[in-house]
């Protein structure tokens, strides 16, 4: 009898703990979505970002176009040569300096990364519908600052760790393993200088750290509602 009671109490404790964790995760996500203006973002059909990438003493202009559903194009100009990566909702492609002028189709991890970039709403929004799972670690100390930690595992098994500040509920850090030119690398992104653009709060300074070095992406202009032709995203 005592054994049955103990077993029942353990199961009850585990159930309650699980529910508390789920509620805590949802509460943090709800506050995060409210803070960044997720409802306003859901109404946006397209947007364009003009930015500068600062790396190794160079300043590289970058333009990013996004259009629903799931269309993405990024262009960077380096030493007179243009690098393009795009996704048209089904297929991804790129033109890379040093690899000729013909567009190359994306596959494997590179294609998955292109799909992620085409997601206007972000990976945390409706993550379960996208086949992902989330684990909530509560508050953690990140370089002396308390943050909420969320581990997001996509349906392909890839993992991203999000760190959301406990005051404004903005994403401040993302850690991820990415496949770059056939090599798996750990990348850390630090997001700062959030500004409002047509009801949406977006980080305008992203510091990206990887084994290849450190780069800063400075967003200079963000415009919503730009009209893009679908041909901008399809492989030429």
Description:
- With 236 residues, this protein is α+β, with helices and mostly antiparallel strands.
- It contains three helices and 13 strands.
- The protein has a 13-stranded antiparallel sheet with strand order 6-5-4-3-2-1-13-12-11-10-9-8-7.
- The N and C termini lie far apart (73 Å).
N-end to C-end Cα span: 73 Å
Number of strands: 13
Considering DSSP H and I runs of 4 or more, what fraction of the residues is helical?
A: 10-25%
- The strand line-up of the biggest sheet is 6-5-4-3-2-1-13-12-11-10-9-8-7
* Rg for CA atoms: 20 Å
Biggest sheet: strands, sense, closure? Answer: 13 strands, antiparallel
Estimate the strand proportion: over 45%
On the 0 to 100 scale, the average pLDDT is 86
Structural class: alpha+beta
Low-confidence stretches: 1-23
What global shape is seen? Answer: globular
Count of individual helical segments:
3
Order of helices and strands: HHEEEEEEHEEEEEEE
List keywords for this structure.
236 residues; alpha+beta; 13-stranded antiparallel beta sheet; 13 strands
Quick take:
21% of the residues lie in helices and 49% in strands.
Secondary structure blueprint with pairings:
Layout (H helix, E strand, L loop, with lengths): L1 H35 L1 H5 L3 E10 L2 E10 L3 E8 L2 E7 L4 E4 L8 E2 L2 H10 L15 E10 L2 E9 L5 E7 L5 E10 L2 E15 L2 E11 L2 E12 L12
Antiparallel strand pairs: 1-2, 1-13, 2-3, 3-4, 4-5, 5-6, 7-8, 8-9, 9-10, 10-11, 11-12, 12-13
